[in-house]
Amino acid sequence: MLCPGCANESFQTVHELSAHVRLFHFDFFKKSFRCKQQNCCNGSVCYSWAGFVRHIKRYAARELPVVNFEEGEVHEEIQDVEDVIVDNEFVDFDEDVDVQDEDRYSIEYFVNNFFKNTEFFAASLYAHPNSSRKLVHSVVQSTSDILTSTITILKQNVFKVLSNCTGDENFPHECAKLNSMFNVLESPFDGMSDFKRLCNLGETGKFIKPEPVLVCHEDKYVNREKTVELIRAPVYEYFIPLRKVLVKFLELPGMFSSITRFMSKLRNRSGISHFLQGGLWQQLSSKDDEQGNKPPTCHFSVDRFLNCSLNLSSSEMLCFTRYLGEMVGDLIPEGNSAWKLYLVLHDILELIMCPVIEPGMDIYMRTLISEHHQTYVNLYGSLKPKHHFMLHYPDLLKRNGPLSSLSALTSERTHRVGKMYAKACNSRIDFPYSVSVKYQLSLCNRLMKYDTVSEKLVKSKFCKLQSLSNFQSFYEFFDVNPMYEVNVANGVYIFETMYKVGMFVVTKVGDLLPTFGEILYIVHDKSFVTFVLKLKTTVHYRSHVCAYIVDDSDDIACVKHNELLYHIPLWCRTSPLDGKKCVSLRHSL
User: How many Cβ atoms sit within 10 Å of the Cβ of residue 249?
Assistant: First the structure.
C-alpha cells in the first residue's frame, strides 16, 4: 500500500504505513488524506487518519491469502503442504543479527524496533493475571507522560550541545534524523487507546480473539427514553479457536521439530511414557505435565490435626502422602498393621505418578491394590465406594499409559489463574468475553516473546572457571580454558520448575538403586544449563520411611538439564533415628 503523503513508499501492513506517516508526515495528521492505491477507482478523500485506515482496510488494501480452518472449506491459495511453514527452527531469537550496520542507524529501523518494543510492553502488562485493562491503560498513560517530559528535556539539552558543534556536510541531515527519533520517543503511545492496542496486537497475529456462540435468549430489562422495557436479549458463550492457537504454537522456533523428535523417541521405547502409546489416545486431550515443586499453603491447624480433620486440598494431600514416611516413619514401630497399609498405598501412588510405564507394571499394580484392599478390610471392616475405582487403575494404565497425564490436577491447577483473571475484570457486563480476552492476552504475550525454553536465572554472576572450588574435576566438561568466564547462578527456573544449589537430582539408575547428585553449581553457557554435581553413594532403600539412604563421596560430575533421567529436583533430609541422610522420590523410576 502507498503512502498518502509521498506516494513513493510501499508498505505491507497498515501498521508499517502508520509508523511511516507518524515519522515523516507528522504535520499532515490533521489534514485530509487522499487514497493513492492502484485498485482504488475514485481516489477517496478521508479527513481523519482513522477514517483513512478504515478505508485502506476495507477497500484498498492488498488482500493477502488467509487460511481459514472452518470445516468444509478448501483454499486454493495453499497449493502444496510443503509451502506452509509450521516451524521456525532456524529463526534466531535475536532478530537484529541479520541487520546491516548501516541499517541500524536508519530511521525506519529505529521506528520499527521502537513500536515493536511498545507492543511487547503492552502485551506483558496485559498478561499479568492481576492487572485489569483499565489498570493497563493507566500504566501506559503514566509511562507516556514520564517519557514525554524527560525526552523533551533531553532533546533540548542534546540540541543545545549540537548547536555548538561543527560537522561535515551530512551533519544537518543527521540532526534532522535525530530530531525525528526524539519526536517518536516523545509520544510512544499517542492516540493508542485500549481498543487500538488490542487491534495492533491482533494485526501481529499473536492475539487470537475469542469467538461468540449463541446459547439462548433471556428476559432483560433495559432503559430506553426514560422507560423500562422488557426485551429478549441473546446470551453468548465464548470459545477459543484451538486450530488457530495450534498454528501459532507450531510456528514457535523449534517447536514442531521438538514434537517430531519426541514422537520418534516414543517409537523406540519399550515402555509406555505417553498417552500417544495407549489405545485410546484419539479420544483424550493432552495437558502439560510440568508442575511446580511447592505445594500451596496448608489450611489445617494443630486442633484439626489432633482431631484427624486435616481438610487438605488435592495438592496438599498428595504432598502429605508422599512425605509422611519421612515425617513420622521413625516413630512408628516395625510391623505396625496400619503403617503397612500406608506403605502399600505409597507404592501405589508412586506407580500412578510414574511418567513411564514398563511392561508388566499393570500386573504389579493389580497385586498392590488387592493387598491394599485386603489390609484395609482387616483393619477397618469394610471398603468405601471410592475404593472400587482403584480396581480399574491397572486396565487404564495399560490402555491409556501413565495415569498422571489423566489426573484432574492438570486441569484444576489452572482454576486459580482463572479466578485471578475474574477478579481483575472490573466490569461484569459480558463477563465471559472479558475473561476469555484476558486468557488470550496472556497467550499473546507468550507467543510474542518466543521463549520456548523459558530459563530464568536467580542471582547469577559471571566468574572464571578456575575461581570455582574443585574446578580441576569438571572444567574439561565445558571444553574451554580455565580462564573462561561462565554465568553461575544460585538457582534457575526451567519450565516453571525451580532448581537451586543444594538440591538433589537423579543421574542414573543401576543395580535397582538410583544414583543421586547434589547440585554444587548451576552454569548457564551457550544456551545450555549444566549442573555441576557432587555424587552420592546410595546405600540401600529404607522401606519403613520410603526413602533412600545416601552417603557422601568425592566424585564430581556434570550433567546438562536435557540429559537428566529424572527432571524433578529433590531435597535431602536427615533421619532423626540415626542421623543418616535420606532422599525420597516423587514417583517410581
Answer: 17
Fold of 455-583: SH3 type barrels. (2.30.30)
CATH 2.30.30 intervals, the chain = 455-583
pLDDT of residue 31: 53
Q: What does DSSP assign to residue 298?
A: P
Q: What are phi and psi of 111, to 5 degrees?
A: -65, -45
Q: What is the C-alpha to C-alpha distance for residues 369 and 382, in angstroms, rounded to an integer?
A: 15
How do residues 126-149 score in pLDDT, each as one tens digit? 777 777 777 777 777 777 777 777
For the whole model, what pTM was predicted?
0.57
Place 38 in a pLDDT band, splitting at 50, 70 and 90: low
Question: For residues 521 and 321, what is the distance between their CA atoms, to the nearest angstrom?
Answer: 31
CA distance 256 to 236: 35
Task: Find, among 572, 581, 585, 570, the residue nearest to 499 by Cα.
Answer: 570
Has residue 441 got a pLDDT over 70? yes
Task: Please tell me whether residue 182 adopts helix, strand or coil conformation.
Answer: helix
Q: How many CA atoms lie within 13 A of 116 on its CB side?
A: 11
The distance from CA 411 to its chain's CA centroid, rounded to whole angstroms, is 15
